[in-house]
Amino acid sequence: MSARFYTVADERYFLGAVGLVNSLRLVGHGEPIHLLDIGLTGEQRALLEPEVTLVEGPPSTPPWLQMSVAPLAHPDDVMVLIDADMVVTRSLGEVIDQARAGEVIAVEHGSDRHRPEWGEVLSLGEVRRQPYVCSGLLVTGREPGVEVLELMEELAGRVEIERTWFGRREDDYPLLFPDQDILNAILASRVDADRVVALDRELEPIPPFEGVEVVDEKTLCCRLPDGREPYLLHHYAAKPWLEETPEGPYSLLLRRLLGGDDLAIEAPARMIPKRLRSGAFARALRARASGAGRFDAYFREPLAGLVRGRRRG
């Protein structure tokens, strides 16, 4: 049974996508990669095309509701949906094998978010309580994956964007976090509970990457304090290629993935911010970004409050 990877990127997320694709190749994944183009430049497309299949994104749909487009256009026996602000640090082969056996795999978010109203708002019926998962990584077989993705595409139209985190941020709105809430509602109503697998939160470290050690920069291998190796790093907050962020494992590996001599995609140096290059000046810029107060940059995007609240508990 074959497998494919799917991600989404626009002009601003190009370098993140390059890092993701290069990381997949370095850890041994030779499967096809499909990238939904929602606003890449011609030059960026030309750099990506030798390594990925580009899929045109819908012109009017918000990007956070488009994760189902590419896999539905090019389905496979196993489909791996993965965000462009992730780098894979070891093979996902074990997880892909689980999906081949009929399981749907995502990473536990770390909050206990559950809204019974999902069932009524989305016409899904009763929605059971189960671990709330992130939407950044979703691994599923064709069955039940196609049904899940078709429902995600269909139900996206139910979202009142102005009420979500991307609008007025109404805390009591059931679909405050649109794609993630819809995914969780579907998994908790249309997929048997014993087929939904929530991976440990620690296997997808997020900022500030506490305790994560880069063991081998060349192979991307990382290690957690308990000795386990995470599958990937997710820089879900402020993006290192877009603005100054504190130095950490993701930034270290991203520099390797944008500037190595063994990469599937080589981005021209002029496209890479100076702080992500080599040399004394770049190191000085990174030191400044890691100064006092900069860690607030880690918590600017949706679900930050949920993650921080769980950690306090």
> How many strands in all?
11
> Major sheet: size, sense and barrel closure?
7 strands, mixed
Write the element-wise H/E pattern from the N-terminal end onward.
Answer: EHEHEHEEHEHEHHEEEEHHH
Specify the CATH class.
Alpha Beta
Structure description:
The structure is a single chain. The chain is an alpha/beta fold and 313 residues long. It has one domain: Spore Coat Polysaccharide Biosynthesis Protein SpsA, Chain A, CATH 3.90.550.10. The chain is 30% helix and 17% strand. It has ten helices and eleven strands. It has helices at residues 14-26, 42-48, 69-73, 93-100, 118-121, 142-155, 178-190, 249-259, 280-289, 304-312, and strands spanning 3-9, 33-37, 53-56, 78-82, 86-88, 104-108, 133-141, 196-199, 213-216, 221-223, 232-234. A seven-stranded mixed β-sheet has the order 3-2-1-4-7-6-8, sandwiched between helices. Strands 5-11 form a two-stranded antiparallel ribbon. Strands 9-10 form a two-stranded antiparallel sheet. Helix 1 (14-26) links the parallel strand 1 and strand 2. The radius of gyration is 19 Å and the shape is globular. Residues 299-313 have low confidence and may be disordered.
Outline the secondary-structure elements.
Layout: E1 3-9, H1 14-26, E2 33-37, H2 42-48, E3 53-56, H3 69-73, E4 78-82, E5 86-88, H4 93-100, E6 104-108, H5 118-121, E7 133-141, H6 142-155, H7 178-190, E8 196-199, E9 213-216, E10 221-223, E11 232-234, H8 249-259, H9 280-289, H10 304-312
Parallel strand pairs: 1-2, 1-4, 2-3, 6-8
Antiparallel strand pairs: 4-7, 5-11, 6-7, 9-10
Helix pairs in contact: 1-8, 6-7
